[in-house]
Every structure is written in structure tokens, then in C-alpha cells.
Amino acid sequence: MISGAILSLLGFTSCEINALRCEYGMPYANFKVNGEVKAADTGKPIEGIAVKFYLNSRIGDYYCPQFITDKDGKVNESFTLLPDEDDIMLTFEDIDGEEHGGLFASDTLRAKDLKITFVEDKKSTWHQGDYDITFEAKLKKADKQ
After folding, report:
1. CA-to-CA distance for 51 and 71, rounded, in angstroms?
2. What is the structure's pLDDT at 133?
3. What are phi and psi of 125, to 5 degrees?
4. Is the pTM of this model over 0.85?
5. FRET partner for 16 with CA separation of 20 to 30 A, picked from 38, 61, 129, 140?
6. Pick the CATH number of 27-139 from 2.60.130.10, 3.20.20.70, 3.30.470.20, 3.90.180.10
């Protein structure tokens, strides 16, 4: 019990990687995700699409909590993660069904499909820089079964 208290004072904790926490003394990067989701057939923005940010790193896949597109089909979110990325991926899922223009099929955009801009922070030891990620997704209507 005493050792746990001492370790917590030093900034050590036990946690899962999926918790996405950046503890004291760990390198981190800031991520900004900006983009728009539209219907492939009409070009109209789609509200209510879940956008999940995945980071495929050497220590496993993990993602930030999902973001939901607004009434203009847009997402503009910022968050902090461990910067050890090999492949950034966004997934799109229609979570409201028929409510906003019909049921849309899920889709994925990988790093090659995204505009990723990296700005290195040369003034800080722990901060590994900023990533601006821009996307435009066009979802097709789902096949009705």
C-alpha cells in the first residue's frame, strides 16, 4: 500500500493502453481532426455519423472516443495521444439509421486517404508535435436486406 502511494506520487500508474492517458513523463502529440461526411450520390452533408480515430502503433491498435458529425456533416475535434503512430485510420458508421437521409454503409479512410500535416515542436522534450488531419468522406447508401 505504501509503495503504491509512493509510485502514484512519482507519476506511475497502472492503466490500459485503451485509456489513452498521457501520464507525466510520457511523450505526447496533439491531434486535430477536421472533415466532412457527405452522401456519395447526392453530395449532401450527413448528420449523425460516428467518426472514430484509430492509431495503429507498435504497441497495438487503440482509438479515441468517437466523434459525431454535426448538422453540416462536419467534425472538428482536438485531443492528445501517445505519438507512436505507424498508421492513422478513420472509420465511419451510421449510428442513427434512417433518421438523417437513410442508412449509410460503414467505411474506412487510411493514412493514404487523409491529408496529414505534422508540425514538430522543437522547444519541448515531451511534446512530440501537432498533427492536423483533414478528410472528406463520401458514404454510399447501405444495401437493404
Report:
1. 14
2. 92
3. -80, -45
4. no
5. 129
6. 2.60.130.10
Distances (CA, A) of 145 to 92, 103, 114, 142: 20, 12, 31, 9
Output b/e per residue, 68-85; b: 16+ Cβ within 10 A. Answer: ebeeebebebeeebbbeb
Contact of 80 with 99, CB cutoff 8 Å: no
Phi and psi at residue 99, to the nearest 5°? -60, -40
Domain residues of the chain, as ranges?
27-139
Residue 18 pLDDT: 41
Cα-only R_g, the chain: 18
Whole-number Å distance between alpha carbons of 39 and 53: 20
